[in-house]
Amino acid sequence: MASETGAADTASSEPQARHVVYCGVCSLPPEYCEFGGTAKKCKDWLEKNHPDLHEKLYSEEAVAATLSTLSLDAQKRAAKDSQKKEAKAAAAEAKAAETKAQAQILIKRVERNKRKYVTAVSGLEAHGMDLKKVAKEWGKKFATGSSVTKTASGGEEVVVQGDNSDEIFDWVVDIAGVPEANVDCIEDKKKKAA
């Protein structure tokens, strides 16, 4: 019987594994989200998914207790730094939204030989789309070859075999959620050699 209690004592004295919660936005533990650059988004995510931990970290008492341990100068610096970080994050979000709203998607139908066409689509990466995944999806959807190619200007575009410009326009507007005003369809004719 003494051996049974000895085994139980050693089992309880071993360290147990801790369950650590990681932020869904910045992938840091919530205690360190303020250093990730997306503090506001992290705070909203934590409030939605783990309200108990949010209360523990961001309640009035927790913030007051944290600030009371700092000196007056450090409190002023901390307040100033947090205002700067929030302003910087808000400005970055506004800038990203503005560039996304202004970004144009060009759908070009290019004639290859007589009645053969290719459809080239550029500007998708500005709307947060992964070009390789889009090319693969379009290849399956239209049952044609599609690939990502580099343009002469240094950018990348998705090239789909065949005249699929109308279907691609519908996909970009309906599925990708890009406004119609940001999508242009252009028809390029191949120049004849003299």
Which helices and strands occur, and which strands form pairs?
Blueprint: H1 2-13, H2 39-49, H3 51-58, H4 60-68, H5 72-102, E1 105-111, E2 117-122, H6 131-142, E3 146-150, E4 156-161, H7 165-174, E5 183-188
Parallel strand pairs: 1-5
Antiparallel strand pairs: 1-2, 2-4, 3-4
Helix pairs in contact: 2-3, 3-4
Describe the fold and architecture:
The structure is a single chain. Helix content is 48%, strand content 15%. With 194 residues, the chain is α+β, with helices and mostly antiparallel strands. A hairpin with a 5-residue loop joins strand 1 and strand 2 (117-122). It is elongated, with a radius of gyration of 28 Å. The model has no long low-confidence stretch (mean pLDDT 81).
Oligomer: single chain
Question: How much is the radius of gyration in Å?
Answer: 28 Å
Biggest pleated-sheet summary? 5 strands, mixed
**Ranges with pLDDT <50 over ≥5 residues?**
none
Sheet with the most strands: spatial strand order: 3-4-2-1-5
Number of helices: 7
Helix percent reads 40-55%
Q: What distance separates the N and C termini?
A: 103 Å
Shape: elongated
Count the beta strands. 5
State the secondary-structure class: alpha+beta
Strand content: 15-25%
Mean pLDDT: 81
- Topology as H/E string? HHHHHEEHEEHE
Which terms summarize this structure?
194 residues, alpha+beta, 5-stranded mixed β-sheet, 48% helix
Question: Would you kindly provide a brief summary of this structure?
Answer:
The chain has 194 residues and is an alpha+beta fold.
